Structures are given as C-alpha cells and as structure tokens.
C-alpha cells in the first residue's frame, strides 16, 4: 500500500467508524435499519411498489449476499461430491452438521480444524464464495462453488498446495456485494489498517436504497399524502445527466480503484470521481480489459456508446428484472437503434434477417474467458476461467463462424 492509499484509507475508515458508532446509539434506542433512521429498508417499499419489488426479488443484485444456510449454499454436501484435495496431502471436506455448515481440514484422516460457513457472496449465477467470521474478522474460505461445472473449486487466487484459511476480507468486498455492514472498530496496525466487523450484521443483498439513496422521508411523506402522485423526497433518475446515470452502475461495475470515500456513501447523482482517485496508469486497449467487473470501461469504449447520445446501461438492462439468458428480448433492445428500415441493421451478408434478429448477442457480445477469475476444481491440473459477456460491442469473426455453423 502506498502512502496516498494509506492516508486515504485511514480517512475513509475513521469516518465509517464514527458513522458506525452513530448506528450503535440509534439501534439501542429502537430497532431501526443499521444504516440509520434515514433508511426505510426494502420491505417498506412493497406497499406502494409491489410490482417492482416482486420482480426485483429474483435478480442477482438482490441475492448477491445471504446468511449461509443449506438453502443459500448451492454446492453439494453429499459424499463423493464434497471433497477437495491439495497437493500437500491435506484435503477439505464440506460437512453439514447440526451446528451448521463447515469446511473441515484433514491431514490423512486426522481432523485439523472446522471453519464455519457464515456468509454467502454471489447469488449462484456463476460462482459463490464463502466468508467465515472469527474475532471481528471475516475470512474467505478456501473452497468456492463454481456453478458451470456444478463443483467445489479452490477460490480464485488461492494456492493449490494447501488449504488457505487466513485470507482476511476487507470492507470493500461488502461495498459491492451488500447494502450495509456493521463495523465495530478500525485500528491501525503499523502501516496496515485493520477493520473489525460485528458478527453477521449485514443488510444482505443490494437493496433498493443502495441505488436510490435513503428513502425514509419518501415513505413517510407518501404514507401521509396518499393522493400525491409525484415522487417526493427521492432522486428522480430521469432528471439525472447521462454520466450520472452511468456512474450509478460504474460504482461497482468498473473494478476497484483507489477509494476516496466508502462506496456505501454513494447517492444517485454523485460523481464516481468523488469515490475513486483517477487512474493515471497507461490507458489499456479495450480489447485487453478483463471482462470481469469492467462492464463500464468496455461498454463506453464501444461504437454504440461513442456514436450515440444518452446511451447508458438502462438502454439494455431493466434494473428491476432478472432478464438473464433472454437473448431475443435483449436483441430487441439493439433493434431500438439498429432497424432494418434505417440501414443501420446488421451488415452481415447472406444471413437470414429473422435468424439474426433472434440473437445479436452471441455474435457481437460473445461470452469470453476472464483472465483474472479462474477456478481450480478437484483433480484438475489447471484452473478453468470464469466466462462472461464482453461489453465491447463490435464484430467478432471467430464467434460469427461458430454461430453461422449452427444456423446451417
Ligand atoms: C406510501 C407509498 C410509497 C411508499 C411506501 C414508497 N413509495 Fe416510492 N413512490 C411513491 C409514489 C406515489 C411515487 C410517484 C409515482 C411513481 O413513480 O410510482 C413514487 C416514486 C418512487 C421512485 C421514482 C422516482 C423517479 O425516478 O421518478 C422511486 C425510485 C421510489 N419511489 C423509491 C421508493 C423506495 C426505494 C421505497 C422503499 C424504501 C419507496 N419508494 C416506498 C410512493 C411510495
Ligand atoms: C441496481 C440499481 C437499482 C436498484 C437496486 C433498484 N433500482 Fe429502481 N431504478 C433504477 C434505475 C436505473 C431506474 C431508472 C429507470 C430505468 O432506467 O429503467 C429506476 C427506477 C425506479 C422507479 C421509477 C420507474 C419505474 O421503473 O417504475 C421506481 C418506482 C423504482 N426504481 C423503485 C425501486 C424499488 C422499490 C427498488 C427495490 C425493490 C429498486 N427500485 C431497486 C435502479 C435501481
Ligand atoms: C453496489 C454495487 C452494484 C451496483 C451499484 C450495481 N451493480 Fe450490477 N452487480 C453487482 C454485483 C455484485 C453483481 C453480481 C450479482 C450476483 O451475485 O449474481 C451484479 C450483477 C449485475 C448484472 C447481472 C445480473 C444477472 O442477474 O444476470 C447486471 C445486468 C447488472 N449487475 C447491471 C447493473 C446496472 C445496470 C446497474 C446500474 C443501474 C448496476 N448493475 C449497479 C453490483 C452492483
Ligand atoms: C468493485 C466492486 C466489487 C468488489 C470490491 C468485489 N466484487 Fe465480486 N463481483 C462484482 C461484480 C460487478 C460481479 C458480477 C459481474 C462480473 O463478474 O463481471 C461480481 C461477482 C462476484 C461473484 C460471482 C457471482 C456471480 O455468480 O456472478 C463472487 C462469488 C464474488 N463477486 C465475490 C466477491 C468477494 C468474495 C469479494 C471480496 C473479496 C468481491 N467479490 C469483491 C463486484 C465486486
Ligand atoms: C442507443 C442506440 C443503440 C443501441 C441500443 C445499440 N446500438 Fe449498436 N450502435 C449504435 C450506433 C450509433 C453505432 C455506430 C454506427 C456507426 O456510426 O457506424 C453502433 C454500432 C454498432 C456496431 C458496429 C461496431 C463496430 O465496432 O464497428 C455493432 C456490431 C453494434 N452496434 C451492435 C449492437 C448490438 C448487438 C446491440 C444490442 C446488444 C446494439 N448495437 C445496441 C447505437 C446503438
Ligand atoms: C451470425 C453472427 C451475427 C449475428 C447473429 C448478427 N450479426 Fe451483426 N454483424 C456480424 C458480422 C460478421 C458483421 C460484419 C459484416 C461485414 O462487415 O462484412 C456484422 C455487422 C454488423 C453491424 C455493422 C458494423 C459496421 O461495420 O458498421 C451492425 C450495426 C450489426 N452487425 C448489428 C447487429 C444487430 C443489431 C444484430 C441483431 C439484430 C446482429 N448484428 C446480428 C455478425 C452477426
Ligand atoms: C447494448 C446493450 C447493453 C448495454 C448498453 C449494457 N449491457 Fe450489460 N448485457 C447485455 C447483454 C445482451 C448481456 C447478456 C445477458 C445474458 O447473456 O444473459 C449483458 C450482461 C451483463 C452482465 C452479466 C455478464 C455476465 O456474463 O455475467 C452484467 C454484469 C452487465 N451486463 C452489466 C452492465 C452494465 C453495468 C452496463 C453499463 C455500464 C451494461 N451492462 C450495459 C447488454 C448490454
């Protein structure tokens, strides 16, 4: 950590600490949201926004963190499917006991230690990682669950030689994967910062107020003024500038820069540049940007974005719905701009327009391997990359050849 990062992190964490002490006092008074009284919590939106709430409940965002239970942990605890072996001869077995779920380390048949699954990170769309709480710290458990191969796998970046149980998780992890986390202390250990968390004190998932900002005043006002049809005490997204709308998503979809402020302080309308220091490193070509977590950089490098006004993530994504794998529906959003009539439709010759229209995505946003996120499954020699859609929308001859061969 360089000096700048050090001072900045210190400032951020001390302000989080002071803030968390305020929560503490208010939570003694009454049973409010741990974020404070200005937050109402998602369940209070149901009475007036039931439709939005109901569809939102099935999104990756809403389910991206959860208490670890037999239901939320997607991996198997059945014999034959619950073991991972390390090259030093030890192995880890996933065990479901009366007292909870555990990753248990063995050397030969000798039990070394059992580590509890406390929190699940990841909705189970592609992968899940697990956190275990001990003495104020969260540790990432060595085994993650890798959905495409339905198998446990050594967590990304973890050594293949032995099970690593001492990787401490920083608060930034919760900043992208939860709505709030209870911090009980922030200490300096030499040049290192050390955060202490309250056990399992989280507002799980990315909730409504993570994107829309605190809404308790909005709820109170509309409850007592049921005739008012205009939204009061809440930021109107439609009134924001396009860059502000992009920044709402880029907060978590542009990678983790050097933070200036806690991501939890973000309110719609804020500029991303107030949360991260500008990155002065050599600009990389878009084609070299990792597909994981960098949708903002890739999309804004695409011609669609550069050549149009006011295009943002909502041009294709409905933030309140799970529209995963609905490629025909998503292709219709491409055709809002690329219509056959105005000649900006696909230039691919000799292809049937109806077939093209059913799926623009596989040719122009192919699923690509991440160079950063790779997972090693049991008995494999080399790790498998996690794969996701690139948001660099352009012409991919290789992907086209593959799809065309399917057309025939
Ligand atoms: C007592 C009724 C009521 C409750 C409870 C309520 N709202 Fe609203 N909300 C409204 C009304 C009325 C509008 C204006 C009409 C509309 O857009 O639906 C509105 C509009 C909105 C808008 C649209 C702003 C825009 O861009 O135009 C957002 C965002 C919003 N509410 C968020 C929330 C959140 C988050 C919660 C829960 C924490 C919540 N509301 C709870 C009544 C309510
Ligand atoms: C990932 C960020 C995000 C989350 C989480 C989120 N919203 Fe929204 N919301 C938006 C954006 C962006 C818009 C603007 C509309 C658009 O772009 O389609 C919006 C618009 C709205 C609107 C007004 C327009 C409409 O679609 O009805 C309401 C009301 C609303 N949100 C309520 C909610 C409620 C209630 C929740 C929680 C159940 C929620 N939102 C969760 C990002 C979010
Ligand atoms: C607070 C951090 C955060 C913000 C803000 C955020 N996202 Fe996300 N987003 C995530 C995380 C974390 C995931 C992975 C969720 C999971 O576990 O499946 C995700 C997943 C997604 C997915 C894939 C979901 C699926 O179900 O297939 C889409 C699409 C997406 N985000 C779009 C957006 C858009 C659009 C916005 C802005 C309106 C936005 N996100 C704002 C953190 C965020
Ligand atoms: C800067 C924001 C950010 C931070 C910090 C972050 N993530 Fe994520 N994470 C994301 C986004 C965005 C996605 C989904 C989209 C993608 O992978 O491109 C994701 C995906 C994941 C997934 C896969 C979920 C799925 O099925 O798509 C897991 C598991 C995960 N993150 C765990 C973690 C853990 C554990 C940490 C902390 C050590 C962490 N992440 C830190 C933003 C973040
Ligand atoms: C808001 C309008 C809009 C939407 C929505 C949109 N595009 Fe575009 N796209 C454009 C514009 C404008 C250009 C630039 C055209 C030009 O000037 O050549 C473009 C260019 C392209 C190009 C050429 C890229 C290159 O590098 O040569 C492809 C391919 C493309 N779009 C595919 C798509 C696909 C696939 C989707 C849906 C996933 C989509 N577009 C959605 C506006 C849009
Ligand atoms: C089978 C793969 C495939 C599908 C499906 C497909 N495209 Fe294309 N598209 C291509 C190829 C290859 C080119 C380049 C053709 C050339 O330049 O000879 C292209 C060219 C384009 C261009 C023009 C790029 C330029 O150079 O100006 C646009 C815009 C575009 N496609 C949009 C779409 C849209 C929108 C859809 C869905 C309705 C779609 N494409 C479906 C493969 C595909
Ligand atoms: C031109 C249309 C378009 C725009 C604009 C767009 N996306 Fe996407 N996005 C897609 C499509 C299509 C998919 C693939 C959905 C699928 O395969 O289920 C996708 C998938 C995703 C995923 C899941 C990726 C994966 O494979 O796990 C995330 C996360 C995401 N988008 C975030 C964003 C964010 C953040 C923005 C704005 C910076 C954005 N998208 C802008 C079309 C778009």
Question: Can you walk through the features of this model?
Answer:
It is built from twelve helices and 15 strands. The protein is of the alpha+beta class and 408 residues long. The strands form three sheets. Strands 1, 6, 7, 8, 9, 10, 11, 14 and 15 form a nine-stranded antiparallel beta sheet that branches. The chain is globular and about 70 Å long. About 3% of the residues have low confidence. The structure holds heme C (HEC) (7 copies). One heme C binds next to helix 9, helix 10, helix 11 and helix 12. It comes from Chitinophaga rhizophila. Pfam families: Cytochrome_C554. InterPro entries: Cyt_c-552/4, Multihaem_cyt_sf, Multiheme_Cytochr_ET. Keywords: Signal.
Features of the shown structure:
binds heme C; alpha+beta; 15 strands; 408 residues; nine-stranded antiparallel beta sheet; four-stranded antiparallel beta sheet; globular; 3 domains
- On the 0 to 100 scale, the average pLDDT is 91
Q: How large, in whole angstroms, is the Cα Rg?
A: 23 Å
Cα(first) to Cα(last) distance is 55 Å
Largest sheet report:
9 strands, antiparallel
State the domain count.
3
Helix content: 25-40%
Bound molecules: heme C
Number of helices: 12
> H/E order of the elements?
HHEEEEEEEEEEEHEEHHHHHHHHEEH
Q: How many beta-strand segments?
A: 15
Q: Which secondary-structure class do the elements indicate?
A: alpha+beta
Shape call: globular
Strand proportion, as a percent range, falls in 15-25%
**Low-confidence parts, pLDDT < 50 over ≥5 residues?**
18-31
């Amino acid at each position: 950590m360089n000096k700048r990062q050090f001072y900045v992190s210190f400032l951020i964490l001390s302000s989080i600490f002071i803030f968390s002490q305020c929560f503490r006092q208010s939570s003694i008074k009454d049973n409010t949201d741990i974020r404070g009284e200005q937050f109402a919590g998602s369940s209070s939106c149901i009475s007036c926004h039931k439709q939005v709430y109901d569809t939102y409940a099935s999104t990756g965002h809403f389910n991206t963190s959860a208490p670890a239970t037999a239901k939320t942990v997607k991996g198997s605890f059945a014999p034959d499917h619950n073991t991972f072996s390390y090259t030093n001869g030890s192995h880890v077995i996933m065990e479901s006991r009366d007292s909870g779920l555990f990753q248990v380390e063995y050397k030969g048949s000798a039990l070394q230690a059992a580590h509890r699954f406390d929190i699940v990170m990841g909705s189970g769309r592609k992968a899940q990682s697990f956190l275990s709480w001990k003495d104020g710290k969260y540790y990432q458990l060595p085994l993650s669950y890798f959905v495409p191969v339905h198998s446990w796998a050594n967590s990304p970046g973890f050594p293949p030689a032995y099970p690593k149980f001492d990787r401490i998780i920083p608060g930034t992890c919760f900043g992208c994967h939860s709505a709030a986390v209870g911090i009980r202390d922030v200490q300096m250990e030499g040049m290192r910062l050390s955060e202490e968390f309250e056990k399992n004190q989280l507002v799980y998932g990315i909730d409504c107020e993570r994107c829309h900002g605190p809404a308790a005043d909005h709820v109170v006002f509309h409850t007592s003024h049921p005739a008012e049809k205009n939204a009061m005490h809440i930021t109107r997204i439609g009134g924001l500038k396009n860059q502000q709308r992009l920044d709402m998503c880029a907060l978590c979809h542009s990678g983790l820069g050097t933070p200036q402020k806690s991501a939890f302080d973000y309110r719609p309308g804020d500029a991303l540049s107030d949360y991260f220091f500008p990155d002065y490193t050599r600009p990389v070509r878009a084609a070299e940007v990792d597909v994981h977590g960098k949708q903002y950089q890739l999309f804004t490098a695409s011609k669609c974005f550069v050549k149009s006004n006011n295009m943002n993530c909502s041009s294709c994504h409905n933030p309140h719905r799970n529209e995963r794998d609905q490629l025909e529906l998503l292709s219709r959003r491409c055709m809002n701009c690329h219509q056959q009539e105005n000649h900006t439709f696909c230039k691919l010759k000799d292809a049937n327009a109806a077939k093209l229209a059913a799926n623009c995505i596989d040719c122009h946003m192919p699923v690509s391997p991440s160079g950063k996120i790779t997972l090693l499954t049991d008995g494999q020699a080399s790790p498998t990359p996690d794969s996701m859609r690139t948001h660099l929308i352009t012409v991919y001859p290789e992907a086209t050849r593959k799809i065309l061969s399917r057309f025939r």
